Amino acid sequence: MSGLTLHLDAERWRRHLQAEAEGTPGLVPVIKGNGYGFGLARLAEESAALGVDTIAVGVADEVEQVRPAFSKTIVILNPWDAHNPRAVELAEDPQVLTTVSRLADLAALADLQTRPRVLVEVLTSMRRHGIAPSDLDRVALLLDRVRFEGWSIHLPLATKGRSTEATQLAQAALAAARAPLWFSHLPAAEAQLLAASLGQNGDAVPLRLRSGTRLWLGEPASRTTTATVMDVHRVARGERAGYRQKRCTSDGYVVVVAGGTSQGVGMEAPTSASSGRQRAVALATGSLEAAGRALSPYTIAGRKRWFLEPPHMQSSQLFLPASVPPPTIGDEIPVELRLTTANVDHIVEL
Length: 350
Known about the structure:
Elements: E1 4-8, H1 10-23, E2 27-29, H2 40-50, E3 54-57, H3 63-66, E4 73-76, H4 85-90, E5 96-100, H5 103-110, E6 117-122, H6 136-140, E7 147-154, H7 162-176, E8 181-184, H8 188-198, E9 207-211, H9 213-217, E10 223-235, E11 240-241, E12 246-247, E13 252-258, H10 276-290, E14 295-300, E15 303-307, E16 315-321, E17 332-334, E18 346-349
Parallel strand pairs: 1-18, 2-9, 3-4, 4-5, 5-6, 6-7, 7-8, 8-9
Antiparallel strand pairs: 1-10, 10-13, 10-17, 11-12, 13-16, 14-15, 15-16
């Protein structure tokens, strides 16, 4: 078995999942994109095993990938789009809960005879999707024509001001219509405080907490990833190698390893670089890449090694100095992958 392999301590991982489920009232596992490196179907199975009554996918086309393993409610997080035939069809599916982020779309759904299940998204400081708090009174006029199941509030990741924003938006939503509040990026401890403050008059408000990265990737010690060494070639200083015929600056080895752009290697999502130090690191890294040098996520002999050139589609070439004993073809070497952008070839449970 060769390629990129995710080695999973399944028992430890599932203990983490169970702890998250028990510590997160109203947990809604988020299953979208590449399934956080595990795949959509697998995470749907794990969600069913946790006993949750609802999961969330990103887009309409992901519903069919999780439905075989999960028979209860499936929320579509992306806002409903009247121009997407699949989304229009699924809005009338009793298993599907549709997110609506525009008044015009809510009015269109209200005209359907089936009274679709609906979450109404409130605009947050992310400024991504949602109806402005000042317009929520207009939402209330349409709610008796749909099966309204709550307000969706997708908070930013920044912690500063998060609790205040959550409280303000929750109060605005509940003033328009009393219904469950569905949050993203609100920790359980803050959610419990919010629920207590909102329910001071004895009328408790159910909270549903969506969780993706924290749930599926919150126990990094439960997993490692490796790549297979596919070829090793000795090179001398001045010889050329790679697609771009880069000249080797010293004697050494070209090590060909599994994993390329099609599997997410070298395609890491951008970071915010909000601090001075982060900006300096980004500048230094960018300068190295501009000069044709980029540090790879692959480790040989205890150190990350330089790419010979940018990764290929399904493999990568590394340069290893002559002073370092090269690996053998077939060896598995560590590789650091961002699992939200990676597609591994194999998952091996330990």
